[in-house]
Amino acid sequence: MEASVLNINGQDTGRKVVLNDAIYAIEPNDHAIYLDVKLILANKRQGTAKTKERSEMSGSTRKLGRQKGGGGARRGDINSPVLVGGARVFGPKPRDYSFKLNKKVRQLARCSALSYKAQENAIIVVEDFTFETPKTKSVLEVLNNLKIAGKKTLFVTPASDKAVYLSARNLQRVATMPAAALNTYQVLNADVMVVAESALAVIEGNLVK
User: Fold this and answer.
1) Which residues face 78 on adjacent strands?
2) DSSP 8-state secondary structure symbol assigned to residue 71
3) CATH number of the domain that 123 lies in?
4) Do 77 and 26 reside in the same domain of the chain?
5) Element (H or E) spanning 204, and its range?
6) Which residues pair with 62 in a beta bridge?
7) Number of domains present in the structure of the chain
8) Beta carbons within 10 angstroms of residue 57's beta carbon
9) What digits encode the pLDDT tens for the residues 114-156?
10) Which of 91, 122, 145 is the last residue of a domain?
11) 22 alpha-carbon distance from chain centroid
12) pLDDT over 80 (residue 159)
């Protein structure tokens, strides 16, 4: 599969790059994508929610009313879950939401996500670029030149680029990511990917062994 290389002005440079079919032209595996996205979102959860159970509440253990004859439900002490301000039954406890997923499954998920983008013609390859100074206006100009303004866009750079990151961080529908950190969730979450030419080699090095 070939893709034309554009510059950040949106002009065709006349060069083409070959996109590895083992990454961009496979039969996508939806279940692998589901598992990898689930893992990524699970790893973002703090798991620090906590409520007090009956044994952890402060308060008297005196029984508030007699067992029978009151006309209502049985009530224990002031910490009873049936009372306002009482303990919570089976409340959340601190826990780790992460789980193990094989490396090959994660690689398959990323290749599947990239193949979906390639099928949708949602991958734009551009010459390597950076900005002299961080300016949001610079990113907006690139988006307009590439005719993708208003779309949810993911810029993939060969390495971490502070100028590009700072220029794009104020734009709600634009994200940046170094190629080595590319993941399934970010790929699927974007409408279009703008990939720097040198980043293709990094992606291929991570996904094809």
Assistant:
1) none
2) S
3) 3.40.1370.10
4) no
5) helix 197-207
6) none
7) 2
8) 17
9) 999 999 999 999 999 989 899 999 999 999 999 999 899 999 9
10) 91
11) 23
12) yes
Structure tokens at 107: 């690689």
Residue 67: domain span = 52-91
Rounded-to-integer distance, Cα 205 and Cα 132, Å:
29
- The single residue listed with the structure tokens 């993939």 is 156
Contact 12, 106 (CB under 8 A): no
Tokens for 121, please give them. Answer: 């013609």
- For 127: left if phi > 0, alpha if psi spans -120 to 50, otherwise beta; the answer is beta
Is 62 found in the same domain as 143? no
- Is the same domain home to 126 and 191? yes
Q: How many CA atoms lie within 13 A of 44 on its CB side?
A: 7
Q: Which tokens sit at 163?
A: 């100028």
Which whole-number Å values give the CA distances from 98 to 41, 90, 109, 186, in the listed order? 9, 21, 17, 18
Q: What single-letter amino acid sits at 179?
A: A
1: pLDDT strictly greater than 90: no
C-alpha count within 13 angstroms, C-beta hemisphere, residue 85: 4
